[in-house]
Amino acid sequence: MGLTLAWRLFRRELQQGQLLLIILAITLAVLSVSGLARVSERLQVAINGQASKFIAADRIIDSPVKLDPAILDTAKDMGLKFVTNMQFNSMVYSGDKFQLVTVRAVESGYPLKGTIVLKSSELNSTEPEQSVKSSLEKGRTQALPASGEIWYESRLGGLLGYPKTLELGNSEFTLTEEISRLPDAGFNPFASSPVVLMQIDDVAKTGVIQPGSRVTYLYQFAGKEDVLSSFEKSVKPLLNNSQRWVDVQSGDSPIAGAVKRSERFLLLASLLGIALACAAIGIAASRYCQRHYDVVAMLKTFGASAKQIRFLFSLHLLLVTLVGIALGLVGGLLLDAGISQLLPPEIAAYSVPYTRPLILGISTGLISAFMFSAYPLLRLLSIPPLRVLQRQLEGLPFGMWLHLLLSLGAMALLGYLYSRSWALTLTVVAAVILLGVLLSVLGFAMIRLGHSVGMKTTNPMQLALAGLRRRARQNAVQLVGFSSALVLLLTIFALREDLLNEWQKQLPENAPNYFLVNIAPEDVQPLNDFMASKGIAATDIYPVIRGRLTQINGETLISNEQAEAGEKGRVGISRELNLTWRDAMPKNNELLEGEFNRAADEVSVESGVAERLGIGLGDKLTYVIDNQELTVKVTSIRAVHWETLQPNFFMIFTREALAPFAYTSMASFYLSSADTINVAAGEPQDRVILELIRLFPTVSVIDVGAMVAQLRQIIEQVSLSLTLVLALVLLASSLVLIAQTEAGMATRQRELAVLRTFGASGWLLRSATGLEFALLGGIAGVLAVIVAEFALYLLKTQVFELNVYMHWPWWVIAPLSGALLVAFLGFWRCRNLLNQSCSALLKAEA
Questions:
Q1: Whole-prediction pTM value?
Q2: What percent of the chain has pLDDT over 90?
Q3: Is the dihedral angle over the CA atoms 529, 532, 534, 538 positive or is it negative?
């Protein structure tokens, strides 16, 4: 009988539309998780896939010695693709000319990701930019130098006069192709030696590699993400301290910061969308249970047992949940299919399994429906039979702590299941707790300001304030919902804009695409004159001096190798540093502590190296430069944005401190991508670079234009993902607003019936209702700004590492937008009640 009654109740209320809101809330929760999970995973895989072209593989093991063959056997058994490369420095000769180069010896299959862009392929294309872009997007394996051949970087040809052959060690090689860009060339303007590419099998016959030679072995791997993760878990424990496991997010590469932040944003936005959908479920469940108070009282009056009633409504809730889950899963699949049509082909081509989104969607529907409905259902089941005679009775008031505990538990569980990050999950939960406390206290206090206003008035504003006072507790809860939606919208919108603005600052339209290094002091002025004659605006010139940090506060530093050998002491930096001086702090640096250099014996230290070495303000640092000691005092700590395509330094001195030492300089400039660099001069871009190399043979020219183009492509994909996720969170926020507006309709209907009975006009009721909702929206907007600013402070400082600033326009825009939005939703929902006559309202109430 219980099953039949539950089905009849479910079918009747479904036909009458009373279950629409709760089913819609569950549907949106499941759709948000299944759809967002698949969309965001696809975007993350695509972003990482495109970004992996920066390292020419998915993962790399960087080692100074040959890797244990067992590790490569493991990779082969797991179905991973891999190639072995060698990198070392050597001198090459052509006639009476010689040059230090970086040799990249690669085997067939390199690169696993991305492509080698050659000058010949660019020259054969009528659209050079498009040729480069298409080459970057193909990501296919291509031909490599044949045995006895070398491909060379453009500047090597200029330095040696474009010979046909050159000598490397004991062998002579033919120069066959000019390299425009290697996919894993990286960005290091201090690496001034040109790159040559050769077959790894040709290394032995050169005789260059001898015992004790400094060689880096690069083992590059590519494959499915889950297989790579398993490989990483099995291999990383086998690596020693001199071997590194590298992925696209390792280090301070320009793309690493963008990928990390985009993934955090996608996870955060998805978590907030889930939280909003779950809040809508809780509101809808409360409304559903309140509508059935009388039904439960009647059933108990007619002798139904508590067990029968519990079975009836539990089964009813289960049917509602299953319908919501089914619709949500279908909606998630449609959402993914629809968004896939809007994505660029290079992103849509990436696919992810359906298994995890489906499991997450079903789990979300069941967990959210149970946890967020448990408290309202307990109150429903405790309704006494006496409510048939006294309708103000609402059963035993279970403590709100139970509701909060279940809701936060559900949110934490769903958050971790989705993000698999306790740090991000607990950050969101903590923000929700703080949000709830502040909004409840502030909202209730502000509503109580209308306590002295009476109800007997013909003034719409006073009637609206009286309505706020009478429904103080209910309005306080509604304020939490309204403000939560606005807070999350403001937070997501602000983070999206800040991320995009920061990336645009890193890569402005005229970002430098050429770097000049090894500029001798006597070449600075002639070089400036050459740039001016060609209409090229160069950036600041940075002096560069090599030095080693040897002591901190008189304590001698040891290297990592010495520490591993058992020597005691403070570990320092096991290499020489690139030092510079500046009269003012660089624009892409941020002062964290102290004051930037003012006296000759002062130095400014980057925050990361300061933390690693335990350096603080006032410490004395001793350097050895050109066999001379220099001691300076730390007077400032700087944050450096390493992801920018700008020269960055760990240590910045004053001009006076480094004046006794020899130095070279570096600069950067931008060349237009058009066919000519200077319309008046009509000189081709390549000719300008070649002339620069000819006039300044000791200056190294580094072309990073292709990398800038590739980085822009990654940023465009990230921007698209941020916009899509923002739209989905906006949908979830709208549902919460609708659910909160729906929550108080029964009480409002009774009040309208009473006011109509006492002669209130339709104009007065419509005006008062609109003003009441507008006041709620305005208050919610003010509170949302306060909490959003606080939440953004936590997120920017603890998660995203962004600059913190106040959003002053919000203090006007948010209250006005909140007032208009909530007033519109409230008035739209109440329009039928406001248009009904007094008799119709009384009949509906009866």
A1: 0.60
A2: 17
A3: positive
